[in-house]
Design goal:
heterotrimer, A mainly alpha (278), B alpha/beta (284), C alpha/beta (270), A: 278 residues, mainly alpha, 11 helices, 73% helix, C: 270 residues, Rossmann fold, globular, disordered C terminus
């Protein structure tokens, strides 16, 4: 990957990638990385400081903090990936159709988008959860439903611009079918743009997941999740701030780690920059 | 008595800096433009003529830097100034008009707003007085209804009209030097002729010094007193226009002239009788 | 007749959410004919409607009225299969060299696109054909692997020409194809176009604003002004005065020859 810029910038990118790699590893390999069962309650050993066997100590129910953080990565990151995937699918489908077809199809789809855009995330989430019940899947659905419309508008705007490019007109004249034009000429730049936006938004989504869980609307205990951990530890903020600090730090690190490569992703996906010097 | 040159550039060098080291793009360019004289800089795309203009004004993009050379505007050294000071100085002394007029205007603001901003950014009054100046500037460039123009948005105007507005904006601050970078290239033939006539009359009326950059020999022939031929970053030949065009020393210059004459000759042969008795006579 | 345009009209609705404003007419009834293998110049100032006419002839836009008959068929009324067949005989080269090719694709892939749409060629045969086309336009076979940004404007135009001739079309619409090029490069591309015209017998509809460029390739000129074809010039016949003012303007816009003592004082320095 060509990394232009100062050593600081490059250093940050490397650090970010390392963090993402570690988080991914933690998420995938949780059962092997975590020394203890994150839901195993042992009241005799509650609120222990870091020590033998428990790398970061225990929480108020005697559960190993480190294990809970590791399993929490699985939940938090897995959820966010699912949300982003759902958003991408929905926004691409709607945005491309609206932009490419135009006319009344466009108008209809955009009005649907407008409808979804008017709902603030938490309100819609609470409504959905009220109807569907709590749980991880519903959290994913709630957050995806409140965000896809924004992306769909961006996709549509991009498609509208790209439709007018001379190389798309040339492809039409060359006899390329509409479907092929969409896949070959329009989708790649749209996907590249979406990828960049999505990485920047991953942190945002993560905060939503944690926020909803913190409010008790999302993940239910004993499932480990960073937002839930913060919620549980509220009453211990003065006595054992570590219980809030660690999950909070994890959220912060994850959000930062995903924001940094988003910038560099643009360079990677742009063929002009990529082949510079050729 | 030699007048102080409005612009004097000595041994200007510009290089691009990248991960693979530096690449010289402009090498040892020296020019001087006197008041009421037009100096033409001619060359193909990529020869560095536009970069030379940007280098003179300190407007080079990110990875390009001026590595050597001195620039004097009306005798004052500007190459040593910090970017802000240079901007202020150049804004008063140099006007620049570019190739694609549409891209130089902000699409959401009217022409009148553009005038106000230009005036304000150089610390002049923007109350009633400026409207009169705007009107007279627009009138000078050939608009009969300046007030109507002030209310229009850029997209409502043709390329030729926008170029005239750009010239009016450029002259608003009465600079002694005008740098015109391919001012007619994106315009159709009739609009090109209009702009060239306008530049010729303005230069005479205001005694402007003009640095005219183009790839088109007829533009040089129409407007310039002297010409410098640029190739691959360096000036390979220079002199009075009539002398260089009549007897070029460099083979590159000769090939440019040959291509031009061929196109012209073919045109006059093809169009033949349609050009009537006013058809130009053959030149060398 | 390869191409017949009859009574084509086109207008664009001006914006406005509320209320219907009068549409701006761009083409007000255009008639044109083009024979097999002929080279016709379509010349006019900006805003005369020539590019819009080009797009309608290419089938990229529909006319509001009138018809375009290509190879005897009404282009805008064809069923899909016939439309596809007609398409391969009608290709284009645009003015803007930089946006005419997908920047993410290697130019070999861009040139191969029309071939992939119409012919069943094996990858090896496709590669050979692309190589042939590149050679025809004066580029090296190795260039097929490069990206558009690695080429100059003149080379990009050659690549666009290679793509246009890939299917050996009967008609190529050249929409200001040389207007953004430098003089020397322009001359070379015009030579290439003339050469291909001789070799392949393709008809050209050459849209331009500069008489010098148009007359290099065409013996018949259609002059457009304000959405109509106001006069047809056949350069092989003597002119019948009076010359239409639109044509007169275009003739006067051509600069005097270098070094000529022009009575209007237009050439040389003051």
């Amino acid at each position: 990957m060509s990394c232009e810029g100062s050593p600081v910038r490059r250093g940050l990118l490397v650090a970010a990638l390392v963090v993402i790699g570690a988080l991914a590893a933690a998420a995938l390999l949780a059962p092997w990385v975590a020394p203890h069962d994150p839901t195993a309650i042992d009241l005799a050993r509650k609120l222990q400081p870091p020590g033998k066997g428990c790398f970061l100590g225990t929480d108020h129910l005697g559960r190993d903090l480190w294990s809970r953080l590791v399993y929490g990565a699985r939940v938090s990151i897995g959820t966010v990936v699912a949300i982003v995937a759902l958003i991408l699918v929905l926004s691409l489908a709607v945005g491309c159709t609206a932009g490419y077809a135009g006319g009344w199809v466009d108008a209809l789809l955009m009005r649907a988008c407008d409808l979804f855009l008017t709902f603030p995330t938490f309100i819609l989430a609470m409504f959905l959860i009220g109807v569907l019940g709590t749980g991880l899947v519903n959290v994913i659905l709630a957050i995806a439903f409140t965000h896809w419309a924004w992306y769909a508008r961006i996709v549509r705007a991009l498609v509208l611009t790209l439709k007018q490019r001379n190389y798309v007109l040339a492809a039409r004249v060359a006899g390329t079918s509409r479907g092929r034009i969409l896949i070959r000429h329009i989708l790649p730049p749209v996907l590249a743009q979406l990828a960049i936006l999505a990485t920047l938004d991953i942190g945002h989504m993560m905060l939503h997941v944690s926020g909803l869980s913190f409010l008790g609307l999302g993940v239910q205990p004993p499932t480990p999740e960073w937002g839930v951990m913060i919620n549980d530890a509220r009453q211990y903020v003065w006595t054992q701030p570590a219980l809030i600090l660690y999950p909070g730090l994890m959220i912060f690190l994850t959000v930062m780690a995903f924001n940094i490569p988003g910038d560099h992703l643009r360079d990677v996906l742009d063929p002009v920059v990529r082949t510079q010097g050729a | 008595m030699t007048a102080h040159p409005v612009l004097r550039v000595t041994e200007l060098e510009i290089a691009a800096f990248g991960p693979h080291g530096s690449l010289p793009l402009v090498r040892g360019v020296s020019l001087s433009v006197l008041a009421n004289r037009v100096v033409g800089l001619i060359g193909e795309s990529g020869c560095g003529k536009s970069l030379t203009c940007l280098g003179i004004l300190g407007l080079l993009p990110g990875n390009l830097r001026r590595t050597r050379g001195e620039v004097f505007l009306r005798g004052e050294a500007v190459h040593t100034l910090a970017p802000d000071a240079m901007r202020r100085h150049c804004g008063r002394s140099v006007a620049m008009i570019l190739q694609n007029p549409m891209s130089c205007f902000d699409a959401v603001h009217t022409i009148g707003r553009h005038f106000r901003e230009t005036v304000a950014s150089h610390g002049l009054q923007t109350n009633g007085g400026f409207r009169d100046r705007a009107r007279s500037a627009l009138h000078e460039v050939g608009f009969d209804e300046p007030d109507a123009i002030l209310g229009l948005y850029p997209f409502q105007m043709s390329g030729g009209m926008l170029q005239r507005v750009m010239i009016a904006l450029a002259l608003l601050l009465e600079p002694p030097l005008l740098i015109a970078d391919e001012p007619t290239t994106d315009l159709d033939a009739v609009a090109q002729a209009t702009i060239l006539d306008l530049l010729a009359s303005l230069r005479k009326r205001r005694g402007l010094g003009v640095l005219l950059v183009t790839h088109d020999l007829s533009v040089i022939a129409r407007l310039a007193d002297e010409v410098a031929v640029m190739r691959e970053g360096a000036i390979i030949e220079r002199g009075p226009v009539t002398a260089v065009f009549a007897a070029p020393r460099e083979s590159y210059t000769a090939s440019l002239l040959r291509a031009h004459h061929r196109l012209d000759r073919d045109y006059r042969t093809h169009l033949g009788a349609w050009l009537g008795p006013a058809a130009g006579t053959e030149s060398a | 007749m390869l191409l017949e345009v009859r009574g084509v009209e086109k207008g664009y609705r001006r914006g406005g959410l509320f209320g219907r404003r009068e549409p701006v007419p761009v083409l007000r009834g255009v008639d044109l004919t083009l024979a097999e293998g002929e080279s016709l110049g379509l010349i006019g100032q900006s805003g005369s409607g020539k590019s819009t006419l080009g797009r309608i002839i290419l089938g990229l836009e529909r006319p509001d009225a009138g018809e375009v008959r290509f190879q005897g068929q009404n282009l805008h009324d064809l069923p899909t299969a016939d439309w596809r067949r007609a398409r391969r005989a009608l290709q284009v080269v645009f003015q803007d060299t930089h946006s005419a090719l997908n920047p993410r694709l290697r130019i070999g892939a861009s040139i191969a696109e029309p071939l992939q749409n119409y012919e069943r060629l094996s990858p090896a045969a496709l590669r050979d054909r692309v190589r042939e086309l590149l050679a025809l336009v004066g580029l090296a076979a190795a260039d097929a692997e490069k990206y558009p940004h690695q080429f100059s404007g003149g080379q990009l135009q050659r690549i666009a020409i290679a793509r246009a001739i890939a299917l050996t079309p009967r008609l190529i619409v050249l929409d200001e194809a040389v207007s953004s090029l430098d003089m020397l490069v322009q001359a070379r591309v015009l030579d290439l176009l003339a050469d291909l015209h001789r070799r392949l017998g393709t008809a050209y509809l050459f849209i331009a604003h500069d008489l010098r460029v148009v007359t290099r390739l065409a013996r018949r000129l259609a002059v457009m002004d304000a959405g109509r074809i106001v006069t047809l010039v056949d350069l092989d016949r003597s002119p019948q005065p009076p010359i239409h003012p639109a044509l007169q303007r275009l003739i006067e816009a051509v600069p005097a020859p270098l070094g000529c003592a022009d009575p209007s004082g237009r050439s040389g320095s003051a």
